[in-house]
Amino acid sequence: MTLGFWPAVLMGLAGAGHCLGMCGSLAGAFSLTVAPNRRLVTLLMYNLGRLASYGLAGALVGGLGAYVSAIGTPLLLAFRLLAALLLVLMALYLLRWHLGLMRLEALGQHLWRRLKPLAGDLLPLKNPWQALPLGLLWGWLPCGLVYSALSWALVSGSALDGGLSMLAFGLGTLPVMLATGLAATKLKQLLQHPGFKGLAAFILLAMAVNLLFVTWRQWMPA
Questions:
Q1: Are 217 and 209 spatial neighbours (Cβ–Cβ below 8 Å)?
Q2: pTM of the prediction?
Q3: Which range is most confident: 44-48, 56-60, 72-76, 172-176?
Q4: Helical H runs in the chain?
Q5: Which residue ranges traverse the bilayer (predicted)?
Q6: What whole-number distance in Å separates Cα of residue 127 and Cα of residue 144?
Q7: Crossing angle, helix 75-94 and helix 5-14, to 10 degrees?
Q8: Separation between Cα atoms, residue 69 and residue 73, nearest integer Å
Q9: CB 197 within 8 A of CB 39
């Protein structure tokens, strides 16, 4: 059960505000340490690394979900319910009705404490190519929105679909990350507009309901 390309992109776009808080300041800061004619290349390298980490994480959890499905364990039901729950929590976060999704960020702190010093060693950037490994490391920064997207990769059905869904999610975050580094304020304002976030939240809730319905049809006795 793959999330689909455009819904995954929408998830990334809808989380633009949170991305600004988590990664935007870094992108804006280090892009200023390189010459203006290299700024775009630096941002692209950083985000290429970040998306690569998302794709790898999606492939890993997608493969895990496929294995669980193949051996026929009821754990797959729990995975699907988790994915639906996190999607609802993400929609509530976008509407600012409930911010519990952000509490999930504590789950990745242990790994991040090991990676953060490595990322720090790459700063300040001496050339745009150093932004690629920086992005690879920064892609593992604990993030509730990323974990929500990963839950869908978990039930995607394969490592390939899981990786692709996370790459699509990463592409959705790309416009705001580039806009931050290049000071494109109008795009940032559009992606953070309450109307856009409300529409995205509605679509995400509809996707959660659809996942629950499909799961109910498959697991409930006739």
A1: no
A2: 0.84
A3: 56-60
A4: 5-14, 16-19, 25-31, 39-70, 75-94, 109-121, 131-138, 144-154, 159-182, 185-191, 194-219
A5: 6-30, 51-71, 77-95, 131-154, 166-184, 196-216
A6: 31
A7: 40
A8: 7
A9: no
Q: What would the pLDDT profile of 84-117 be if each residue is shown by its tens digit?
A: 888 888 888 888 888 787 788 788 888 888 888 9
Q: Please, are residues 30 and 127 in contact by the beta-carbon 8 Å criterion?
A: no
Encoded amino acid at 161, one letter: D
**Token pair for residue 164?**
């692709």
Local structure of 79: helix, strand or coil: helix
Structure tokens at 6: 């455009």
Delimit the domains of the chain by residue range. 5-217
Cα separation, 205 vs 97, whole angstroms:
13
Instruction: Taking the CA atoms of 86, 88, 93 and 97 in sequence, report the sign of the dihedral they define.
Output: negative
Residues 6 or more apart whose Cβ sits within 8 Å of residue 44: 178
Residue 68: C-alpha distances to residues 59, 73, 153, 173 (Å): 14, 6, 13, 30
C-beta separation of 143 from 156 below 8 A: no
Q: In 3D, which of 34, 3, 49 has the Cα closest to residue 168? A: 3
